[in-house]
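re the bet — no i am not wrong, look at it urself. input seq straight from the record:
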Amino acid sequence: MTEEEFQQAIERLRPQLTEQARRYLTDGGEAEDAVQDALLRLWQMYEQLHPPIDRLAMVLTRNICIDLLRRRPRSVCRAIAVDNETSEVDEHERIERMMAVIDTLPELQQTLLRLRHMQGMEMKELASLFQMNEAAVRKALSRARMTVRKQYLIRLNDESKT
């Protein structure tokens, strides 16, 4: 890939990467930093890349965001949600609660959920990526969704009691 091709691809991809990072990270500045980190990593290997680089850029950005989320202390996230009582914070709190539940799932279920619902990957793509048949992917996703729903409602119920 030439430098010019790389720059054109990045100009086209940057808004998508930023949107994806903002879905994971609530802080816009932190999302921009994650995208910048992903672009830097892509730049360091642009000569070895072959177009299209869309998927690679999306996966790289997602992984950086997940790493940042895992490094965050959980108490800080809850303190932010408690301090503000706007509907925007309520939405943030629901998303945060959902992400906390998803973090408790087995690795395969976590990855399947994130790729399917956050990345919009099709069942066929997931099946080939994980070397599973589509029925197994559907079953794993179904189990993951049921577990998330159950745990989310339990946590919501526990928080409303306090």
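see?? The two ends are 57 Å apart (CA to CA). told u. also The chain is about 80% helix and 0% strand. so pay up
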